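Long-time lurker. I teach an intro course on protein structure, and each term I like to show students one example going from raw sequence to a predicted 3D structure in token notation. This year I'd like something fresh instead of my usual example. Would anyone be willing to generate the tokens for the chain below so I can use it in lecture? Attribution to the forum is fine with me.
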Amino acid sequence: MADARDLSPLEIFEALKAGEILLVDVREPAEFANERIHGALLHPLSTFEPKAIPTTGRRVIFQCGSGKRSRMALDKFIAETGADAAHMTGGIGMWKVHNLPFIRINPASGQVEDDGRY
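-- Reply from a regular --
Happy to contribute to a lecture. Here you go:
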């Protein structure tokens, strides 16, 4: 049985479009600068403060590169706030496998690339 706190990239994409969630990226600033999902807020796990994340209005969803750090952030967030939250399985890597839109820096040109599908 799947854990209700483990959401797929497709579920998160639909919830983002509907404005139902707050997506929190827990990767480090350099990772976030190189590629990120539209609308994600940066709260790196290395300096993570659960109570700094707003818990009103929308469900909080954590995201990272592969799903490991986001699950750690989720567990810490729930333990400290008791708020309803979840994380994205597979991280931004799985997001890209599903060909969902994201912003990235082209390493060859240094230019920001945004396919505008969001």
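Some talking points for your students: The beta strands are 6-7, 21-25, 35-36, 41-42, 59-63, 85-88, 103-105, 112-114. The first helix runs from residue 9 to 17.
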